[in-house]
């Protein structure tokens, strides 16, 4: 397996502060969207040398309700699997590869009901709220560098990470030696949600908590719909249709 540098960016984006974000607040020209996001950033343009793209995953084991973290046993740190996109690789491929390399588990995407702004497919133009999607849940952006290479200074750039939801089955088995040479101390570990939140950085705990709540919401919606489809009584079908409307509102409200 070829060596790829896993050097991390030198700064970390901050998690949103709910006390300063609401639909109408502004501060020094900054607009705030939902309480799940930090404020707006200036319109920007980055040349190819001045940015990097990466991907990360929030991984759930639906059968147990546990979540998957990376434990760096050498540094005693815990984090979500993540890394930089390779040349010719899609962000989705990057997310799955990094999850496998850093945790040792083979991960699949976890479709969720999300209030995504991505358009619905042409075949179902009115179904944006009714489709489970595997779109990124979050994007973070922060500076990296500068670095010195001998007499040359690399000014660094902007690192943008796309976060996806993933899942592993009940019988998932962790494989050994799946990562890069500098990842030999990485161990994928399944934890209860509260334990995971206490170990993650504030930003990653925020991302984990929101993603997990959308997974729980998705499970509830699917259970209601399956219950409605299995009951053939007309009055029950009317209740099921009303439940679909309530489910749509929940998808919006979990923002």
From TrEMBL:
It comes from Russula ochroleuca. InterPro entries: Nudix_hydrolase, NUDIX_hydrolase-like_dom_sf, NUDIX_hydrolase_CS, NUDIX_hydrolase_dom. Its cofactor is Mg(2+). Keywords: Hydrolase, Magnesium. This is NUDIX hydrolase domain-like protein. Residues 246-255 have a biased composition (Basic and acidic residues). SUPFAM superfamilies: Nudix (SSF55811). Transmembrane segments: none annotated. Residues 50-218 form the Nudix hydrolase domain. Residues 1-30, 225-255 are annotated as: Disordered.
């Amino acid at each position: 397996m070829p060596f790829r540098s896993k050097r991390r960016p030198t700064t970390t984006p901050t998690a949103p502060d709910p006390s300063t974000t609401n639909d109408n607040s502004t501060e020094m020209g900054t607009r705030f969207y939902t309480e799940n996001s930090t404020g707006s950033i200036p319109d920007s343009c980055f040349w190819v040398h001045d940015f990097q793209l990466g991907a990360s995953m929030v991984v759930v084991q639906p059968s147990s309700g546990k979540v998957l973290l990376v434990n760096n046993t050498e540094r005693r740190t815990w984090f979500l699997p993540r890394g930089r996109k390779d040349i010719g690789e899609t962000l989705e491929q990057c997310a799955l590869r990094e999850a496998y390399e850093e945790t040792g588990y083979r991960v699949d995407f976890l479709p969720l009901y999300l209030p995504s702004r991505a358009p619905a497919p042409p075949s179902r133009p009115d179904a944006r709220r009714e489709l489970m999607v595997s779109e990124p849940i979050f994007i973070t952006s922060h500076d990296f560098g500068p670095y010195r290479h001998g007499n040359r200074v690399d000014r660094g750039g902007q690192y943008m990470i796309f976060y996806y939801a993933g899942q592993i089955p009940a019988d998932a088995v962790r494989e050994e030696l799946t990562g890069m040479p500098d990842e030999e101390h990485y161990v994928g570990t399944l934890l209860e949600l509260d334990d995971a939140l206490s170990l993650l950085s504030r930003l990653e705990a925020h991302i984990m908590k929101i993603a997990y709540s959308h997974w729980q919401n998705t499970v509830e919606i699917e259970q209601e719909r399956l219950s409605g489809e299995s009951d053939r009584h007309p009055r029950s079908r009317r209740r099921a249709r009303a439940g679909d409307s309530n489910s749509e509102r929940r998808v919006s409200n979990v923002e």
